[in-house]
Amino acid sequence: MKQELEKYLKEQRLKLDVEDPEPDIVWEGIRNQLHQNKKQNLPQWFWKVAAIFLFVVSATYFVVNETSDKQMVIVQLSDISEELGNKEASLQKVVNAKWEMVEQELPEDNSEIQFLLNELNNLDQIYATYQKDLNNTIDNEPVIHVLLDYYEKKIKVLNRILLEIEKQENHEKTITL
Fold first, then answer.
1. pLDDT at 138
2. Which of 61, 123, 124, 173 is the most buried (most CB within 10 A)?
3. pLDDT tens digits for 63-75?
4. Is 135 within 8 Å of 79 (Cβ atoms)?
5. Taking Cα atoms as reference points, which of 131, 123, 120 lies closest to residue 150?
6. What is the enclosing helix (H) or strand (E) of 116?
7. Who contacts 122 (Cβ-Cβ below 8 Å, separation ≥6)?
């Protein structure tokens, strides 16, 4: 068999050593490959059904998540007892008053105070976490104490910010004199 192949190659060498292939043969091969690829592709209706299915699933997910978040009731300390509600309200008033003072006196360049402002943000995140815990387990005494402690710590941090602002202002006054 090997000898027959060699004999055929020697006889047909001039015909086989053509630099340019015949265009008709090349185009026929391309057509055959395209025809095979069309058979392998999924029909158009499949993609339409898949798109509709994906839309319905994502819309359902979105609607369920949006409605479940809105239905969550936030429990306040005043819902547990009037005394806790009054204590929380008075602490909130103090925090709001201190925050207003800080906002009025906060310098534009507050790089030294930024650490304390970050602490306030951390406190707010902790408060949000414990607020969720209170919503899950109403009348949980340790959570209630943490929520009240949050206000006291926030007041301390706000007082510290006010002291830092006053310290910076006094330092600037002594430098200018």
1. 65
2. 123
3. 887 776 544 556 6
4. no
5. 123
6. helix 114-136
7. none
